[in-house]
Amino acid sequence: MCDSFAMAFVGGCVVGACKPGQWKVCADARADLGSTGPRHRGAVRRCAQHQPCMTVINGRDFGDKTLAPVGNFVLIELEKRKNVSSGGIVLSGAVKTKRRTGHVLAADDGSKFALSGTPMPMDFKIGDRVIFSSLGDYRGTQVKIDGKDCIILSASDILGTAPDEEAGLTDVNNLQPAADKLVVFVDKLSESTVGGILLSSNVKRTSRTGVVVNVGPGKLLEDGSREPIGVQVGDRIMWQEYAGNEVDTGKAGDKYFVIRGGDVLATF
């Protein structure tokens, strides 16, 4: 079923306090995972009364197996569908009905660089709340695990991490872009031309300039260093048409994009 995504099933479960058949990543498991097993591999499952947990994937029972992504893939439990957010960051506009936020359930240790075979560590860990790009809708694979809506996608499609909505995220600076991505406050477009002609609302225009408000650590290189993005917070930049993903902090009139460093055309 999962050969095309190089998935693996890992057996075993840990005695705990949730009902058989329930997939759960507990807070204490997130904190202790680094000392009790692989840092990323597989979600921790806790079962009541020493009974084996039954994992049901897309309606098929796989017994006590757990779904563990391999290489650069990440398993994410999607957040419940919302049109607006009371404090967290969600994608805005027509895509608000799309769920592009969730929590990492499982992730491998990462892939390897093709030429040298040097390990490429995973940037995300179990429990991280992540936001992924619109490309995830097409390149990701949605699965239902124990009744929960999940998605398997490449780590490269994840835009960044953000605090839980319950924490009351009101500042876009709390959105931490991943790898070579950056967050930009988009310049507002004028409603008239230089000559004073009022533009029709039917004319679709998109601003491709803005001010950088947050920058990721950079693309990981084979020697373990990070490639500088080439811009810093406060720079005004121009980027390629159709690049980036819009995010919304709930502030009327304010527009933010997450774009890749490679899509930046110029600074000024």
Automatic annotation (TrEMBL):
SMART domains listed in its UniProt record: Cpn10
CDD domains tied to this protein: cpn10 (cd00320)
Signal peptide coordinates: none
GO MF: ATP binding; metal ion binding; protein folding chaperone; protein-folding chaperone binding; unfolded protein binding
UniProt cross-references to SUPFAM superfamilies, sorted A to Z: GroES-like
Tagged with keyword Metal-binding: no
Swiss-Prot/TrEMBL keywords: Chaperone
InterPro entries registered for this protein in UniProt: Chaperonin_GroES, Chaperonin_GroES_sf, GroES-like_sf
Pfam families, per database record: Cpn10
PANTHER family attached to this UniProt entry: 10 KDA HEAT SHOCK PROTEIN (PTHR10772), 20 KDA CHAPERONIN, CHLOROPLASTIC (PTHR10772:SF63)
Family label: Belongs to the GroES chaperonin family.
Protein name per its UniProtKB record: 20 kDa chaperonin, chloroplastic
